[in-house]
Amino acid sequence: MWEKFLEESERDIRSSAPKEPSARARMVTERLRKQDARGELPPGWRTGPAWQEMNGRAARRRKLRAVFGVAVAAAVVLVALKPSLLPGDPFGAGTAEAADASPLPDETAPPTAAPESPDPETPTLDEPFAGSPALRWADGEAGIVLPEAKAVGAVSKDRVEQALKLTKKLMVGANLDPKAVRGARPDAAFSVLDPKQPDVVDHLETALRSPSRKNDPVALFSRFDPDEIRLVGDVIKTRGHMTFKKGEHGGVAVLADYTFVYPVSRADGSTEVTRTIVRRVLETELADPARYQVTPGRLLVVEYDQEIGNSSCFVFDGYLHPEFSSSASAGSTPSGPAVDPYDRSRGVDDGDREECGTVTRT
């Protein structure tokens, strides 16, 4: 740019330098001067700016262009020496801290590895996701991004889109609805389930009324006892993806795999913060009401599974029970393998559910 500036400046100087008029030009000028003295030039001949005025403006334009060229050249040199002077970090030269906190792109398929461990930090009431990979995850419902709907066999694109939206509504109602997470009945989730599938709906209703080892509502719903636990802030971090395929009941099946991270503290006013991590794998189907006895616009639950990190084992009262580092576990002593609850590259643990494992981080 500096060389270009020098070349343009030299060219402008040459073009603006005074030149000796030719003999013909001197003759024409002298003839016009005598005609003007005799009053022979027609009126209006000098309308418009005088040549001297035009040349003056042209010179000013060249001067501004030259000054601008100097400013640009100086700016280029300055930015080259100190890129941080430009706003917005246009060259991607931001700090490592900013990169660590930047949101992750949406997950569209299972990752190939567990997320890296950020610098160890203790979560606080003001920074409940400090030291957690979930810091870069989406907030709540924004983390459930639907794939583009396409027709599947005889199932139209609109039906596929409907199935995706209903499955998202189920996931939100079961895991993100503020009232449901704080222990209330998850009505939004029930509004999506098909009442003509009693083995699922009746089972869940029984689990909410009379939770037990056999009927445990946390198998599908994330909920905390409001007398024991309170959520820290209004944000639940979410990450996962959704896919679809041809269903077995004349419709479209949707497979959802999401992890939810809940920052919590004790309800007694303690400032200690911990996190419970819940991963849910769910398969639903929007069946064909013309061929099967189903309720139009409602979902069948084909299968569901879960993996819960940092909740007391073998406590079946219908709630999740986070453990805090300052107190001993209220449940059984961990005896199972250690698991990274943030590792979404592996499948949900199908091992011995009688064992109480440990989590490598929260």
Automatic annotation (TrEMBL):
Signal peptide: none
Alphabetic keyword roster: Membrane, Transmembrane, Transmembrane helix
Disordered, as annotated region: 1-56, 92-133, 326-362
Protein name from the UniProt record: Uncharacterized protein
Biased composition (Low complexity): 105-116, 326-338
Organism of this sequence: Streptomyces massasporeus
Biased composition regions of type Basic and acidic residues, renumbered to the chain: 1-14, 21-39, 341-356
Transmembrane segments: 64-81
